[in-house]
Amino acid sequence: GTKSATADDFVSFGEFRLFNAYLIVYSAMYDAFAKIDGGGAGRDKNDDRRMDKGEWLAGYAGCRDYGFLALAEVKDDAGAEAVFSKMDDNGGGIVLLDEW
C-alpha cells in the first residue's frame, strides 16, 4: 500500500451506489474528451490525450448531447473559443484531461 493509506481505503456497501454514479459521470466525461481528441471515436495515431483549440472547434458540436451543461450551452465558434480559454487553466494552448 501507500504511505498515506488509511484503514478506510475501500468502497463500503453504503458508498457503492454513489461510487457507481461518479464512475458513470467520469466515463462520460472521458468519452466526450476522447471523441474530440484526435477528431473521432476510437484510438488512432492522432490521439495524444490532449486537446488543442483546432480539435475543440472541430469536435465540440458532436458532444452537445452528452448531458453536460457546459457543452450544451456552446452555440457557436466564438462561444466555443471562450469555453476553451476557461478550460485551459495554465494557458498552454492545450487542454489536458485533468483540465477538462
Q: Calculate Rg over CA atoms.
A: 16 Å
Overall pLDDT confidence = 82
Number of strands: 2
Structural class: mainly alpha
Total count of helical runs of at least 4 residues: 4
Shape verdict:
elongated
- Helix and strand pattern: HEHHHE
Q: What is the helix content?
A: 40-55%
Order of adjacent strands in the largest pleated sheet: 1-2
Strand portion: 5-15%
The largest sheet is: 2 strands, antiparallel
Spans of 5+ residues with little confidence (pLDDT < 50)? none
Q: Distance between termini?
A: 29 Å
Account of the 3D structure:
It is a single chain. This protein is mainly α. 46% of the residues lie in helices and 6% in strands. A two-stranded antiparallel sheet has the order 1-2. The mean pLDDT is 82.
Short précis:
The chain is mainly alpha-helical.
Q: What characteristics describe this protein?
A:
elongated, two-stranded antiparallel ribbon
Secondary structure layout plus pairing:
Blueprint: H1 13-36, E1 50-52, H2 53-59, H3 69-72, H4 77-87, E2 94-96
Antiparallel strand pairs: 1-2
